[in-house]
Design goal:
single chain; about 450 residues; Rossmann fold; 2 domains; 9-stranded mixed sheet; about 30% helix; disordered N terminus
């Protein structure tokens, strides 16, 4: 196939490998074998955590953990046999746990993920996998040490959609010729401002010390609590829109272009209203080296109302709140969660051969949580495993480092440092509250 990899290689690269995995119980999966039901601990059981629990309720829920007693009690009503905890560190001491769902505040994800992996648990984590460059690397390395023994999946649920698979097939199959760049955006505009003022004592049901966890202590304010849009704009608790929606949207570029770690990154953003919050808008650019089927490519990010210029009136739709635009030497592909539009710019598409049967397509997903559960029982690695997701999140967090130092970065991935830019170190790594250990 001219202009791209052959379809067999494309499908091999797009689909997960299969293997055989022994569960912690020592039992192998068998048809209908009850001994192969996973023993799952859910850490964070409100909001997204409740959705994750519901998606995994066919398994054995043996532990529930939340800093909010009300959320914990509600989940315990549904799973009365599960033991309950406020502190996730105590939860992970329970000896019969096979797998962990992490659905807490963003600034605790890397801690829970790493601790669970270090104890040999399968892990499903809500995005982002981590909240800094170093955290992303620590989680990824913890997984790589356990690779082949544990199943991991980052909660970028839309990755399981058929539309994502068709988008990947078009880019890797040569529909736009040789890919040259991808431009990704989400127009959500967060609020700026300082950390919130003290607002009295927290509710009796909320363990505020555990909610703060490894972050610097801040007095209670209800404005921090109640969902990712509450906390993720603050540096101590989140990583802005590139951490939140970037985990979903950049996933399209990462999968379709078969990206790993970049060599450069530069970012610009709005003037900060304080030292507390992420920028209202951010634009970023990364360079990725060539691989065995495509040339070197550039990847761009826009948020906070910023968008790329689109190449045609066909594409210029005001309703495009978010999306990804792929440019190749023979055309463009515009896509989002549930649509894709192809615009050839040269020739008659003879460089591209459309799939002729289902066998030539990336297989349909069982479902995002189901992929993780299947991986725990059979060894078939989920597509958003922590090797893939760790690189994706490290890539995104680099943009915030470049923004905060106000300089382009030459990224030394092996050394986990920005070459010739020691000022970047303070943003690559976080300092944690006394008593909290990341790689524990």
């Amino acid at each position: 196939m001219a202009g791209g990899m052959n379809r067999r290689d494309m499908l091999k690269a797009g689909a997960a490998g299969a293997g055989l995995l022994v569960l912690r119980s020592g039992m192998l999966m068998g048809a209908g074998a009850p001994s192969n039901t996973l023993n799952i601990a859910a850490i964070g059981v409100g909001g997204r955590g409740g959705g994750d629990l519901n998606a995994c309720k066919s398994e054995n829920i043996v532990a529930l953990c939340d800093v909010d007693e009300k959320a914990l009690a509600k989940a315990a009503d549904k799973f009365p046999k599960a033991k309950t905890y406020a502190d996730w560190r105590k939860c992970l001491e329970q000896t019969d746990i096979d797998a962990v769902i992490c659905a807490t505040t963003d600034h605790t994800h890397a801690f829970i993920n790493t601790w669970a992996l270090n104890r040999g648990k399968h892990v499903y984590s809500e995005k982002p996998l981590a909240n800094s460059v170093e955290e992303a690397r620590v989680v990824r390395n913890a997984y790589l040490k356990q690779k082949g023994k544990v199943s991991t999946q980052q909660g970028t649920q839309i990755h399981a959609s058929d539309n994502y698979r068709r988008m990947v097939e078009l880019v890797r199959g040569g529909a736009i010729g040789k890919p040259l760049e991808a431009r990704v955006w989400c127009s959500r505009e967060p609020e700026g401002g300082d950390y919130l003022p003290p607002a009295g004592d927290p509710p009796a049901s909320l363990n505020w010390d555990l909610w703060i966890g490894p972050a610097p202590m801040h007095p209670y304010n209800p404005g921090y609590v109640g969902g990712c849009l509450k906390w993720n704009r603050f540096w101590d608790f989140g990583s802005g829109q590139i951490g939140d929606m970037g985990s979903h949207m950049m996933d399209m570029a990462y999968w379709a272009l078969d990206l790993r770690l970049p060599t450069t990154c530069k970012a610009e953003g709005s003037e900060p209203k304080s030292d507390a919050t992420c920028p209202i808008w951010l634009t970023a650019e990364w360079d990725h080296p060539a691989n065995d089927w495509r040339p070197a490519v550039k990847v761009f990010w826009y948020d906070g109302g910023k968008k790329p210029g689109l190449p045609s009136k066909i594409f210029n739709r005001d309703e495009l709140f978010k999306g990804a635009l792929f440019k190749g030497d023979q055309g463009y592909l515009l896509c989002d969660y549930d649509y894709r539009v192809l615009m050839p710019t040269k020739g008659d598409m003879t460089q591209y051969t459309a799939p002729k049967s289902q066998e030539n397509l990336i297989p349909k997903s069982l479902g995002h949580h189901e992929e993780w559960i299947l991986g725990a029982k059979t060894g078939k690695a989920p597509l958003c495993n922590f090797d893939y997701a760790g690189m994706l999140i490290e890539h995104n967090m680099l943009a915030l480092v470049s923004y905060r130092v106000g300089k382009p970065l030459q990224w030394d991935a092996d050394g986990l440092k920005a070459t010739g830019c020691p000022d970047a170190d303070q943003y690559i790594r976080k300092t944690y509250r006394e008593g909290w250990v990341l790689d524990g």
